[in-house]
Write a structure and sequence with these properties.
30% of the residues lie in helices and 27% in strands. The protein is of the alpha+beta class. The chain folds into two domains: 151 residues, Rossmann fold (3-Layer(aba) Sandwich); 47 residues, no CATH class. Strands 1, 6, 10, 11 and 12 form a five-stranded mixed sheet that branches. Strands 4-3-2-5 form a four-stranded antiparallel sheet, with no helix packed on it. The chain has a three-stranded antiparallel sheet with strand order 8-7-9, with no helix packed on it. α2 crosses α3 and α5 packs antiparallel against α6. It is globular and about 65 Å long.
Amino acid sequence: VESSLPMRERQELALHAHNPFWLDNLGQAPLAPSIIIANEFFDALAIRQFVFWNGVWLRRRIDASGGALHFVVSEVEDGLSIPPIKSEGAIFEDSPSRAEVIDQFARLAADNPFAAIVIDYGHQGEAGGDTLQAVSRHGYAGVFDRPGEADLSAHVDFAALARRAARCDLLSYGPIPMGLFLLRLGIGERLNQLCVNATPEQREALIAGVRRLTSPMEMGELFRVLAVTNGVKPAPFEVKQ
């Protein structure tokens, strides 16, 4: 699933030997047994932000008047469910776009075996605040600094994904830290196998790579893994939501 034509071209160069094909969105996926790997996918989907200001919740929006992008606020639509946070300046985020993807999971899972693995950075509903961020030229930037050129993302609320999955009669497992997930899958054993015939330089690079993926001080704790299925529990997980 890739909507960007430049990214499709780059993927074609890397994957042409495997005859890949692309979808504009998950709704175009054929109804068939499915395994979905969503690696840093949900964090790039659109979010909504709400800010508590002068005793009321307001919707945070983007305006382009005056020749520059900037935030503005508007009244909140009726029927929105917002947690009872009432501290001045508090920010709450949600994402209908992410919920729609879970709905598409349910469509694919209705009559066929289905499993999805979600790997992303985020929280389990306990974190609030503004998580919208931009990355440009390998560093953080203001969200309006390079419109159309910077990568925009926001932390994933895994608890919200699990709730949506339950509403769709899907089973969810986790999330668990990515480091724990990889260790339970045997990344340590695989590292030992690869190091047997590796040169000292290769061994050093392999160890550094595993450390980066699994260490709580690097990616191992910030990134989390959630499984969504309509059947068997995936091996690395212990608790069903």
